[in-house]
Amino acid sequence: MNKIQKRMDLFYIPALLFLILFVAYPLGNAFRVSLLKWNGYSTHKTFVGIQNYIRMVADPTFWVSFRNTCLYGFGSTLFQQILGLLLALFVNSKIKGRNLIRTIVYLPAMMSGLVMGYIQYFFFQYDKGVLNEIISWFGFAPVDWMGQGSRAVAIIIFVNVWQFTGLSMIIYLAGLQNVSAAYYEAAEIDGANSMQIFKYITLPSLYPSIVSSTMFNLIGGLKLFDVIQAMTGGGPGNASHSLSSYLTREYFGAEKAGYAGALGVFIFVFIMLVSYCINTAFRKGGERLS
Amino acid sequence: MDVNLREEPKAEGQSSEIRHKRNSKLISYWKVNWWKHLLQVALCGLYAIPFYVIIVMSFKPITDRSPRLSLPNTLYLENYIGVFQNGMGRAIFNTVIVTISVVLIEVVLGCMAAYPLARHKCKKNTIISNIFLGVMMIPGLSVLVGVYSLLAHIGGINTYWGLVMVCVGFGLPTSIFLYQNFISSIPKELDEAAYIDGAGTFRTFWNIILPQLKPVTVTVVILTGVGIWNEYMSSLYILQKSDMFTVTLKINSYFSAAKQDFGGAAAAAIVGMLPVIIMYLFLQKYFIKGAVDSAVKG
C-alpha cells in the first residue's frame, strides 16, 4: 500500500509544474522587475534597487489607490454579508416567487464584471444616464454622478455589491438549509427565546457560510479591477483607482514596468497578509463557538 | 384534481362558504406578506432594469435621442449586424477555443492532482495541498507583471496558448480543491479492493475513481467555463492584436473607441453575455451547486 501511495504522488507533478512555471516563477519575476527601471519591452534595463518602493511610499496616487482598495474590499464585503444574509432569509421564507428572486439576484454574479460595469455606466452616466432621467421626472437637474472622487468610489462599491450579493445569498441559503428543523423544535421545547436560538443554533450553523462568503467577497473586492475599468477608468483624475487599475495604468499607460512590479509585489503581500489575519480570526472565532 | 372532484357535488351554500374561507385565507396571506411582495418588485426592478436598458439601447440607432427607458419605435437591427461585421464572430471563435482548452486542461490535471491529495495523506501532501489553496488568493495582477515578460520571452504574447497557460495557472487550484473534496467522499475501500485484485495505480484511478467523478466535473466545467468566458484582465495583457481579441476585449473596444457608439456597444455586450445567460437559465441548479461547493469546505 505504501509503495502504491508513493507512486500516486506522481499524479500531482504536472499541476505543480504548471503552477511553478506560470504562477511562482512570474511572481518571482515580478519581484525582480520591481528592482529595475524598465519600460516593459526594450532590452535596456537598469538595476535601481529599492528605489521603486521608495517612490511608491512618496506617491500620493499610491495612497489614494491603497485607500480605495481597502474601501472596495472591506466596504463591499460588509454590505454583501448583511444584504446577502437578509436576502437568504427572505428567499428561505415560504413566499411565492422566491425562485424568481433567487434567479435574478444571482444572475449578475455569473456575468463578466466588465459588462456589469458598463451596463451600470449607462445608469449613472451624466449625458442621458437612466438615473438622471429618473430624477428629471421629479424636476431635479442632472447630476454628474461619477464626476466627484468620493462619489465615484461609492458608486463602484455599489456596483460591486449589486453584482456579488447574489453569491453571498446563495452561500448563506445553503447554510440556512443545512440547519435541521429538529434543533429549532428542541430549542423551543426547552423554552429558548429567539435571541438564544439565533446565538446558539443559527449562528454556529451559519458560521462556515459566513467564513467562506466573507473570504470570497473580501478577496474579490481587494482585487477589484473590471468594474473600475468599465465605469471610471480610475477617474476623475486618479480618485477612484484601485491598486490593480493603477498598476495597469502604470504598466501600459506610463510604461513604468519596474514601478508596476513594485505595486504588484505590494498587492501580493497585502492580500496574503489580510487573508492570513482574517483566516486566523475566523479559526479562533470558530473554536470559541463550538 | 382530487379536491375539485370532491367539491363539485356539494350544495350551493357550502361551496360559497368554501370560497369565502379561501378568500379570507388569501386576504390574511396578503395582510402578512404584502411587504415581502413589495420588496420582490423592488428587487426585480433593481436587478432587471439595467438589463432592460441595455437591451433597449441595442435596438436603437445612434441618432435616436429618446430616453433610455423608452421602448424603441422600430426594431433596428443594424447594431447587431455591425457587431458581427466588426469581428464579433472571430472574437467568439477565439473565446470558444480558449475556454475549451482551459476547461479540458483543468479537468484532466485537476482530477489527477486531487487523487493523491485526497488519498495519500502525509505531511508532504498536506503542504502541497496548502500551497494549491494559497495560490487561489494570489492576485492576478501581481503575477501578470512577471508573466508578460516571461511570455514575451518565449513568444506567447498574442497566442491562444499563452492565455490558456496563464488561465490554467490561476484556475487549477479551484478545480483541484473541488475534486479533492469529492474524492475524499468516495469510500476508500473501493480502491483498496482494486489494489488487492492487482490493479496498478493508474488502472485504479482510471477504472475506479474516474467513472465516479461526473457530478463534480459538471461543477468544474461550469465554474471554469464561465470564469474564462468572462475573463478580462489576463486577456488584456496577453492579447493585443485585434484579431486575437476575446469577447470581453471586443466589448471593451467599443467603449474605449472615440466615437461613442453606445448602440453598438450594447449589442456587443448582449451578444457576449447571451451564451452565459442561456446556460444559466437552463442549468441554474448546477450554477448554484458550483458556487456552494467551491465555497463551503467539505
Overview of the molecule:
The complex is a heterodimer of chains A (290) and B (298). Chain A is an all-alpha fold and 290 residues long. Chain A has one domain: MetI-like fold (Orthogonal Bundle). Helix content of chain A is 74%, strand content 1%. Chain A has 13 helices and two strands. Chain A has a two-stranded antiparallel ribbon with strand order 1-2. In chain A, strand 1 and strand 2 (46-47) form a beta hairpin. In chain A, helix 3 crosses helix 13 (257-289), helix 4 (60-92) runs antiparallel to helix 10 (194-222) and helix 8 packs across helix 10. Chain A is globular, with a radius of gyration of 24 Å. The model of chain A has no long low-confidence stretch (mean pLDDT 89). Chain B is mainly alpha-helical and 298 residues long. Chain B folds into two domains: 2-58, no CATH class; 78-295, MetI-like (MetI-like fold), CATH 1.10.3720. In chain B, helix 12 packs antiparallel against helix 13. Chains A and B meet through helix 1, helix 2, helix 5, helix 6 and helix 7 of A and helix 2, helix 4, helix 5, helix 6 and helix 7 of B.
Secondary-structure map:
The complex is a heterodimer of chains A (290) and B (298).
Chain A: H1 2-8, H2 13-33, E1 36-37, E2 46-47, H3 51-58, H4 60-92, H5 98-106, H6 113-124, H7 130-137, H8 149-178, H9 181-189, H10 194-222, H11 226-231, H12 243-253, H13 257-289
Antiparallel strand pairs in A: 1-2
Helix pairs in contact in A: 2-13, 3-13, 4-8, 4-10, 5-8, 6-8, 8-10, 10-13, 12-13
Chain B: H1 2-7, H2 12-58, H3 78-85, H4 88-119, H5 123-135, H6 140-154, H7 160-184, H8 188-196, H9 201-209, H10 214-229, H11 233-238, H12 247-256, H13 262-282, H14 284-295
